[in-house]
Amino acid sequence: MSGTYTSNKYLNKPEHGGDIGTWGTGALNGNSTIVDSSLGNVTSISLTGLTTYTLSIANYQNATIKFTGTLADQVVTVLLPTGVSGQFAFIDSTTALGTSSAISLGWTTNGVTSYVLTPGKTQIVNADGVARVWARSASPSMGGVTYIPISRWIDANSATLTLTSKDLENSIFYIYGTSSAGFSSFIILAFPNPSYGFFTFIANYSWASITTGLIAATVGGGSFIEPIPNQSVQMQYCVGTAFRDVAAAISI
To answer: d(Cα 23, Cα 29) in Å, to the nearest integer?
Structure first.
């Protein structure tokens, strides 16, 4: 077939006067099949024995991509060609052989961000192929709660705790527990960059050796920090790279 192709779904754009007598069975029918697949088809990809997999045109022309097979105790990187954009539903139906087994979405050219899929879940993720950025598209569960003990910072021996994709399945975060003596009095809860949506924080924590301490939410460990006061409930809205208070914190 003559013509050029679109960058995201590889639809054929016939040239004027081209494909005479075959336009319907060529470009038109082919494009109709691709459009139908991009709206509702599911394609399955086995990742057994792989460490890297590059999505083909036939793969990313589908609305939903289902990963199957067995993952070794390591991260398998699934790459989308740079320049391809779109919203995809990913289903992780793989069997993990170790605690490090995971699927990470990346780019064929080093990207700005990657995205680690939550095992056993279906997630809607947006791909910006020009900026080479992956970002979660679906809103977190509005009724679910992620419980975050202070011990997670202590166990990691770090003042910054980066939330996992599993943590981010919910929009309510309950922070609790007591820090150990001598641990930092200022700790950070880091969200992926970029992040979007409303989040509620319930803070019920304390410090072992001091009377006051502070937790703050930030995006990607950046410089813009929004405090989460202790003994309070606070709703914040995140727009890309920064948090903003929706309302004043309510004491509990």
So the answer is: 8
